[in-house]
Amino acid sequence: MSRNGFSSLESEFVRRHHNHEVAENQCSSALVKHIKASVPLVWSLVRRFDQPQKYKPFISRCVVQGNLEIGSLREIDVKSGLPATTSTERLELLDDEEHKISIRIIGGDHRLRNYSSIISLHPETIEGRPGTLVIESFVVDVPDGNTRDETCYFVEALIKCNLKSLADVSERLAVQDRTEPIDRM
């Protein structure tokens, strides 16, 4: 899974927090993003299962049924330009201690079948300030007519856009609430 050239620490986090069961007709990958904002700030965006559009640029609308808890469903409207218009997703895991969320797509008009993702956040120091290492991994069926590489490339491109947007939004918020550099250890 570490075809992306992870550091040993990143590989350890992937091994510990991103264990997907990958079937023969599926592909899986993990992506990493370093964000110049604290874990609590980044987590305040990522944990909002009910408001993914706060940082995910391809989502125009999200409606959650009932309380925000494991098993909750959300109906997402996708902005035009993607090969989809809706997605139905279930919250599989929301761990405020470990800063970890997992989502499974259970319906919608798109080709991402049996899609499941995990996002984990880990504290790090970037340029002497609190930062966040974000890891997002996924597993998904390879659709008929596509190769494993094509499928992984497509999903990775979407995740890269989401992670870049998460970094942009988080870092903009962090600049507004700038704290003093933390001491180097």
Oligomer: single chain
Number of helices: 3
User: What overall form do the CA principal axes indicate?
Assistant: globular
SSE pattern: HEHEEEEEEH
End-to-end distance, in Å? Answer: 32 Å
Low-confidence runs of at least 5 consecutive residues: none
Q: Characterize the main sheet.
A: 7 strands, antiparallel
Average of pLDDT: 90
> How much beta, percentage-wise?
35-45%
Instruction: Output the structural class.
Output: alpha+beta
- Report the count of strand segments: 7
Strand order of the largest sheet: 1-7-6-5-4-3-2
Radius of gyration: 16 Å
Helix content: 25-40%
Task: Describe the secondary-structure layout.
Layout: H1 8-17, E1 26-35, H2 39-46, E2 59-64, E3 73-78, E4 86-95, E5 100-108, E6 116-126, E7 129-141, H3 148-176
Antiparallel strand pairs: 1-7, 2-3, 3-4, 4-5, 5-6, 6-7
Helix pairs in contact: 2-3
Folded structure, characterized:
This protein is an alpha+beta fold and 185 residues long. It is built from 3 helices and 7 strands; from the N terminus they run αβαββββββα. α2 (39-46) crosses α3.
